[in-house]
Amino acid sequence: MNILGKQKSKSHEEKKKVIIIDDEQYVREILHNYLTGKGWEVNCASNWEKGVELIKRHPDVDVVFLDLLLPGERGLALLRQIRSHFPNIMVVVIASHNDISTAVECMKEGAFDYLTKPFQLEKIPLLVERARELKELRIRESLLKKELEEKIEIQNRKIKDLFLGSLNALVRVLEAKDEYTVGHSRTVALLACEIAKVLGLGSTLRKKLLIAGHLHDIGKVGIRDDILRKPGPLTREEFEHIRRHPLISEEILSYVIKDNFILSSVRHHHERINGRGYPDGLKGDEIPLGAKILAVADAYEAMTSHRPYRKALPAEIALKEIEKNKGYHFDPEVVRAFLSVPLTKIYPKTEP
Ligand SMILES: [Fe+2]
């Protein structure tokens, strides 16, 4: 018993199917008579075109016997066509005794075997038997491969769901601690993606920015409640304490996210173009693009939201404020992109 088990014995009960493509009538007749005498289904073609037609009509054929010296088109070209469009069909090339080198070339191109004229008919049943075994093996392999790919796809989907679930859990942790962040991260994320789209960033980077936007402030879970909820202005020490949140965000996320674009966007979302931001005081193009985008989206969303220490600003004032700080706080290119985003479409909260 071989590894094909029951499948092998079942398929071996089926009628063997053979196509012969040869321009010499006597070769076709001899093969046809011999093989039909064994109860096989045999179809014959005398040239390239008829051969292709036959194969299209009988794609389940086991073996094609192919004459290398077909008129018009060479047999080798037809072999390539069969291998390319019908990879499970086994091809046995028929070569003349002085054309062995082409036959060998055919083997390299994927022919199952070759015969040289004149050949012994008695060899053919064993040849076809071997070809059928290989064909069954290939079919089984491709089924196993497909099955495996489907399993991997399901696993990948589960891993992705778990990953996104864990990110949502992190957002919820922060929202439970600070009511003012409810919805803030989501809006920043969506707005950042719209800015990125105007800047021409591809979908992969936009997806990363979406994640960074949702999680940029997660480090606030490490900030004292009395500071986070303080209704009045912060003291110098309190401000120093709150300035740690991008670093804490980066550290928390680094346990589940290994992507540098996301981590650097989160770490540097409070940097300023003039170098007076935090945590690293980066200037201009030292600041990663993702962080520059988040900075604008974050500032606009924060200004148009209520805070313990002030009321929300109207959208038009917030927009003017962003533009005013172009080149000082914010990157001019990012501000230009931001100002061309249709805010009412993606951000309906335009009234305080
Ligand atoms: Fe922040």
Write the layout of secondary structure elements.
Elements: H1 5-13, E1 17-21, H2 25-36, E2 41-45, H3 48-57, E3 63-67, H4 75-85, E4 90-96, H5 100-108, E5 113-117, H6 124-177, H7 184-199, H8 203-215, H9 225-228, H10 236-242, H11 245-254, H12 260-267, H13 289-303, H14 315-324, H15 332-339, H16 343-346
Parallel strand pairs: 1-2, 1-3, 3-4, 4-5
Helix pairs in contact: 7-8, 7-13, 7-15, 8-12, 11-12, 12-13, 13-14
The chain binds fe (ii) ion.
Q: Which features characterize this protein?
A:
352 residues; alpha/beta; Rossmann fold; Hypothetical protein af1432; 2 domains; 5-stranded parallel β-sheet; 5 strands; 8% strand; disordered N terminus; binds fe (ii) ion
Textual characterization of the structure:
The structure is a single chain. This protein has 2 domains: 5-145, Rossmann fold, CATH 3.40.50.2300; 153-346, Hypothetical protein af1432. Helix content is 57%, strand content 8%. The protein has helices at 5-13, 25-36, 48-57, 75-85, 100-108, 124-177, 184-199, 203-215, 225-228, 236-242, 245-254, 260-267, 289-303, 315-324, 332-339, 343-346; strands at 17-21, 41-45, 63-67, 90-96, 113-117. The chain has a 5-stranded parallel sheet with strand order 2-1-3-4-5, with helices on both faces. Helix 4 (75-85) links the parallel strand 3 and strand 4. The longest helix has 54 residues, at 124-177. Residues 1-11 have low confidence and may be disordered. Bound molecules: fe (ii) ion.
